[in-house]
Amino acid sequence: MKRVPAHEHVLDTGKGEFTLDDLGPLLPGMAEIMPLVGSRVWKCYYAGQARNRPLARFQLNEAVNLLEKGAFLRPKYADSVTAFVEEEMAAVRDAIEAEDWKGFEEAFDAMVAAANAYHDLYDKSFLRWKLPADPPPDLDLTARAVKGGLSRPSDL
Ligand code: HEM
Q1: Does the pTM exceed 0.85?
Q2: H or E element: which one contains 8?
Q3: Where are the domains of the chain?
Q4: Which of 7, 107, 144, 148 ranks highest by number of CB atoms within 10 Å?
């Protein structure tokens, strides 16, 4: 039987009314989060190829954040995600920080192999992520931080 809380929070969007329980199924799961991880990891790799440390670091951090969000929303994956972040992703991060681009290639390959091993572990052997052959078309991989930054687009 459905649990009835002492008081119910109702969200009124103007288009409909929703309880907190209604919103649960709308939260993203691994099926929505994982392709975003793949996109970040792809960008991280080609940022490394472009020897762009800040961009590679940023993309890897975003991939970590997405995985941690996945682990929060799907706790059964939490231990695997923690191990993956602390081992394989940390090795990639260390190589980026050291600007050890040969080590980066090796750590990146090991990270992808481990990701696919986790897919095997969760009975998803048919999901084998592979690095796209081309760099992402929507990002200038040479862009770096400008000292002081640009405060407004009109500064361009
Ligand atoms: C570099 C890291 C990773 C990448 C690039 C990656 C990539 C992907 C992609 C692209 C998909 C979706 C495939 C599709 O639906 O078309 C997927 C699914 C999945 N991945 Fe990963 N993955 C990574 C790491 C992990 C790790 C560490 C775990 C361990 C918890 C994991 C568990 C899963 C699961 C359970 C699914 C199936 C989700 C579903 O129910 O649809 N992945 N992954």
Answers
A1: yes
A2: none
A3: 30-125
A4: 107
